[in-house]
Amino acid sequence: MKISTAILSITSLSPAHSWTAPAIPRFTSRTKVSTTGFTQLHSAPPSSSTKYADPSRYLSDHPNNNVPPHIAALVGKGLHTRPNHPIGIIRAKIQEYFSSLPHQDFTIYDAEDPIVTTTQCFDDLRIPPDHPGRSPSDTYYITDTTLLRTHTSAHQSEHLRSGADAFLCAGDVYRRDEIDASHYPAFHQLEGVRLFPVEEMKGAEGKEGQEWLESEECKVIAEDLKATLEGLMDHLFGETEKRWNEDYFPFTSPSYELEIKYQGEWLEVLGCGVVHEEVLQTSDRADRRGWAFGLGLERLAMILFEIPDIRLFWTEDQRFHSQFASGEIVKFESYSKYPPVYKDIAFWIPEGFVENDFFELARGIAGDIVEKMELIDEFTNPKKGKTSKCYRITYRSMDRSLTNEEIDALQMQVREKVAEDLGVEVR
Ligand code: FA5
Ligand code: MG
């Protein structure tokens, strides 16, 4: 993922947001994991996360609403709570691992409202007002102060405040992002938080900042975090090659990301760290210390089931769904190898051109047959003082062959709309 769209980016772009508390209903399902968490998950009543499948909740006349209909239509599908869907299967496997850990019971949340406030998603997590992750070029806003959550960390402080000491929280998250086989504007995350018993953290009392970072207790937490997540990866994949990198999140310190080797390449699967003491203070848990992580379920499922394209998770095609069953890890058999169609488009960009607006515009017109959009050429004409960008759009259906005529017609619509809506000069 490009640094400018990651939640951890630190450069500033967007104006400050004002905050007034809107009244949004919040429904949360709580299931306690028993020692046989896996079986309990299967016998549990169906999750109510699908109650959010109502596009009218996300589309409004608010001047700053930037949720397009094709995104609103994805909310509430509840892929993470479907026992026979790869996202649901991997979530169950992760819960199974955490319920097998000694010492702590993890409470499970899986049906929070995907609409959150800027306070939940950003302020409570020390994400500053000018952070690019808050910018409308990266985030889907419903009003100025409500949005589609960009990460499951948006629920950290409410669960901490409610008194939870250890919990997992899974859900669909939304980001305006680049388009390729491993990036999709909607995906799923699973958050985990563990607070340590007060007795084990006696030595940390009153410590903040550098003094806390250097304390024995902070190191103990970071080591427990890494060991827990390495154990999770081994539980999922057997022995996999993995590596830790330092990372930055405003809500954890120190922070790390974990990468695993997949088809010869390092793939980032999660971010994590020691919960920042100010986040604990905000959540009225200043007496406690602990760790948090957030992982991408699609990335893990793509590796585990060998699913080559992130769009497949959203398909309704039975040739996909018939291959998966609760609790079973199988290799996905490709049922289609339809040829791609490439189309290039070049244009002079105006000042303030936002790449994500262009990606979204194409998806809005052509939908999921847009497999990839990449910048293949860029130059500035010094006389004109103008910059030209050339993008290659790869069109490919997972379910059928595309005709040249239909792609030409779509490409023509993209050319017209990009000039109309984004003020570019198509070349
Ligand atoms: C976060 O979202 C942090 N909230 C994670 C976190 C939680 C850190 C708790 C510390 C404590 P990040 O933006 O890196 O971090 O995303 C986390 C994971 O989500 C990534 O590692 C990746 O697996 C997945 N992910 C991110 N963007 C996409 C995308 N567009 N498509 C699919 N998966 C994605
Ligand atoms: Mg990251």
How would you characterize the overall build of this protein?
The protein is of the alpha+beta class. 26% of the residues lie in helices and 24% in strands. The chain has helices at residues 37-43, 69-72, 86-100, 118-121, 156-161, 209-213, 216-237, 277-282, 297-304, 318-321, 355-366, 404-422; strands at residues 30-32, 107-109, 115-117, 146-148, 166-174, 186-195, 242-249, 252-262, 265-275, 290-296, 341-349, 370-381, 386-395, 425-426. The chain has an 8-stranded mixed sheet with strand order 1-2-5-6-10-9-8-7. The chain has a 4-stranded antiparallel sheet with strand order 12-13-11-14. It has a two-stranded antiparallel ribbon with strand order 3-4. Strand 8 and strand 9 (265-275) form a beta hairpin. The two termini are 29 Å apart. Bound molecules: adenosine-5'-[phenylalaninyl-phosphate] and magnesium ion (MG). Adenosine-5'-[phenylalaninyl-phosphate] (FA5) binds at residues 1, 6-7, 151, 153, 175, 177, 183-184, 187, 189, 191, 249, 252, 268-273, 292-296, 298-299. Residues 6, 8, 257, 268, 271 line the site of magnesium ion.
Helix content: 25-40%
**Secondary structural class:** alpha+beta
Radius of gyration: 22 Å
Question: Which ligands occur here?
Answer: adenosine-5'-[phenylalaninyl-phosphate], magnesium ion
Secondary structure: number of strands:
14
Largest sheet: 8 strands, mixed
| Contiguous runs where pLDDT drops below 50 for at least 5 residues | 1-45
Strand and helix order: EHHHEEHEHEEHHEEEHEHHEHEEHE
Strand arrangement within the widest β-sheet reads 1-2-5-6-10-9-8-7
Dominant shape = globular
Mean of the pLDDT scores? 88
